[in-house]
Amino acid sequence: MSLNRRDFVKQSAAVGLTVAGTVYLSGVGEPAEAACSKPLRPPGALQEDDFTATCIRCMRCIDACPNKALVPLQQASRLGSPGTPTMQPRKAACMLCMSVEGDYLKCTEACPSGALQLVKKDKEEVQEKVHIGIAELDTDLCYSYNNWSCGACYRACPLAGEAMTIGLWERPTVNPEVCVGCGCCERSCIRYPHAIRVKQEAGA
Amino acid sequence: MMLQIARRMIQISVILLIVVIPWLCLYAHYRAARVVDDEQLMAGMRGEVITQAIHPYLDELEHPEAFLDANKGTVWSMRLAGYDIADPLAAVEMLAASKSIHWPLWLSVLVPVILTLILGKVFCSWICPGYLLFELAGKIRPLLKFAEIPPAEVKFSHKNKYIFLFVGLGITAMFSLPLFALIYPPAVISRALHAWVFGTALTGMLVVLGTMLLVEILISPRWWCQTMCPGGALYGLLGKKRLLRVKLKSSSCTGCQACIPVCEAGINPITQSGSIECDNCGVCLRHCDPAALVFTIGLPTSKNTGQPQHNSKTSNRPAAAMLTLAFWLLWATPVSGHHVLGLPHYSYKENYPQRPTLEYPATTGPYDVLLTSYPGTPTPGEPANLAFYIKNRNTGKVFTDRVKICVLQTSTFGDNVVILPTTERASFDNEHKLQCTFPVDAEYIVELTLVVEGKQEVIPFLLNAGEPTATASIVVAGVSTLLFCFVVVRAVQKKYQRRKLAAQSSSGGQQELVVIG
User: Fold this and answer.
1) Fewest CB atoms within 10 A around its CB: which of A59, B41, B339, B345?
2) Per-residue DSSP letters for B102-153?
3) Which of B87, B93, B155, B182 would you mutate first to test chain A, the one with the most A CBs within 10 A?
4) Annotation: CATH topology of A133-204
C-alpha cells in the first residue's frame, strides 16, 4: 500500500484521537489517590484490580439484584472505572438474596465473566466469599453512644449477634472478623449523616 | 427490497429487546420487593409500564421468576431465554485485561462466532444498534447539502480499525482496564437505554454517542463503522472466510455503478464484494436493477478476493461448525432451581420507611466537613433538614464552635437570590443543624462560614432541590435547536432562490425568443 506523508498524518491523527479519547474515558491515567473512598463491589467480587480487569461492564448483575442495590459507576463521579457495578448502602443494601428464590446470590449467578465468583446461599459460604467491606461505627455520631438509645442497625443486621453485638443502651459493636459488609446497618441507621457505614477493606 | 425491510425489522427488534430486558429486570426488582400492587409506589411512568404493560402478562406465567431470571443484560453480554450470548470483543477484551480465561464467557461467544464464520459481519449490519443509529445519522447529511452547508467528506482508511483493535487491546493488557466497553457503540447504546429505564445518569454515554454522531454528520460519513469500530474489525477478521457472500454475475452487470455510493461498508461491490470489509447488509442488491449482485453460499473465488481457493481444505468446516453449535445448544441448560428461604428479613416499605439522604463532603484545614441533606433531594416548598458534621481528621475530635450558615438560590442569568440570610448556629449532638425550605426546583448554594485556626473559612456547597434543569443542558438544547432551525431556514431560503433563478432563466429565455421572433 502506498502511503504519502499527508495521508499517514491524517490516518494516525484519526486513530490517535480515538485511542486518546478512549483512554481518557476509561480513566487509565487516574491517580490512585481516591483509594480512601474505594467503591463497594457486589458480593463475591474479585479483588479490586482483578475486578476492574475482569468485569466486562454488561450490567447483568445490576439487572439481577432483586433489591436494586447495584448501580453502575458514572464517568463523572471519578470513583472508579465507569460502568462497573457499585453499591450505595444508604440507598439500598445487599440483602444477600434472602427474600428471593434460588440457591445462589443472584448477581454472582448472573455474572458472565467471573468478576463475581459464584456464591451459594448458605451461611458458611457467604462468610467465606462475601467481602463487600466492613462496617465502621462513628461513636461521635451514634445515638446510643451520645445519650440516646437506638439499636436500629442491630435489628437490621442479617448476622446479628455475630457480626454485630449490642451492649448497654443498645450500643452496637461491629465484629470485623465476621462482618461481610452487606450494608443493612448503614441502610437502617436513623442518624444523618449515618453513624455506621461500610468501607471497603484496606487489603481488598 | 424485502431483504432491507427484514434487516430494518431485525434492527428495530434488537433495540426493542434492549429496552424490554431492563424493563423486565426492573419489574423483577419491584416484584421481589412486593411493591407491584402498591399504588403509591407505582405512580409515574415507570410504575405505569410495570403495572399495566408487564405485570398482567407475566403474572399469568407458570414460573414468572424463572422467566425473569432467564432474561438479563445488554448486547455486550446477554442472557436470553436462559442462554448466554456475549460479544466476541467482550471476551477478547476480558482476556487481554485479566489475562485469564473464564470458560463460560468463551462458551457464550460461540454462537456469535460461528454465525460470523458462516454469515460474515452480519452482526454489524443486521443487529448492531450503533449501525442503525449511524445509518440514520447519515440521512441528515443530504439536508445539510440541500441547505448548501456542505459537510466535510474526509475519507479515512479502512485499515484504521484493525490498528485501533490491536492498539486498544495492547493498552488494555498493559493497564488491565477494558477500553472498548466504554466506547463500543452497541455496548454504549444498550447501557444508555438501560440507564434510561433504571433512572440512573446517562450523560457520559450521551456525550460519547454525541461526539461520534457529530463526526459522522459533519466530518466523515459512516466514519465509525467503516474505519474505526474495533468490534467491526474483529467480526471482519472472523468472517473473512465466510460462506454467505455477495457475488457479481458479470454477465448481467450493466456497469451503471449504482451500487457504489449506496454501499454501507464504503467499498465497491463490483470489484470488492468478497473483501473483508463487506458486512452482507444487502443494500447493493436492492439498488442493482439488473439483479447482477446476488447473495451466494460458497467460499471466495480467486476472482473477487485475489486469493487462491481453499475448497479442499475448508469444505468440512461448516459441518464441524454446525456440530459444535448443536452440541453447545444441547449442553447449555437454562437456569433452574427454586428455593424459598423463608420470609424476607426486610423489604422496601416495611422496615425502611426513611427517605434517602445525600451527602456533600468538603475539607478545610484539618477538618472534614460533611453536609447531609434530608431528604436527599429536598422537595420544593417542604422543609428540608441540613446537618453539618465537622470533624478533625488528625485528632478525630468533633468541631463544636459556632458556625454561620446562609442559603442562596443560584440563577443562570443574574445574581444569586438569598433564601436564608446568614444565621449563627451552635453545635447540638455534635452537629450543626438547620432547617430550610427551598421555594422552587433549582440549584442552591449552602454557604458555611467557620473559624479555623483563627482564620475565617467560607465553604460553598452546591445542592439540588426538586429536579432543576442543569444550565449546561439548557445551553446544549438551545444551541442545537437554534442550529437546526438555522439549517432548515437556510434550506428553505436556498430552495426559493433556486426556484427564482430557474424562473428567471426560463422567463429570460422566453424574452429572447420573443425578441428573436
Assistant:
1) B339
2) -HHHHHHTHHHHHHHHHH-THIIIII-HHHHHHHHHHTTHHHHHHTT-PPP-
3) B182
4) Alpha-Beta Plaits (3.30.70)
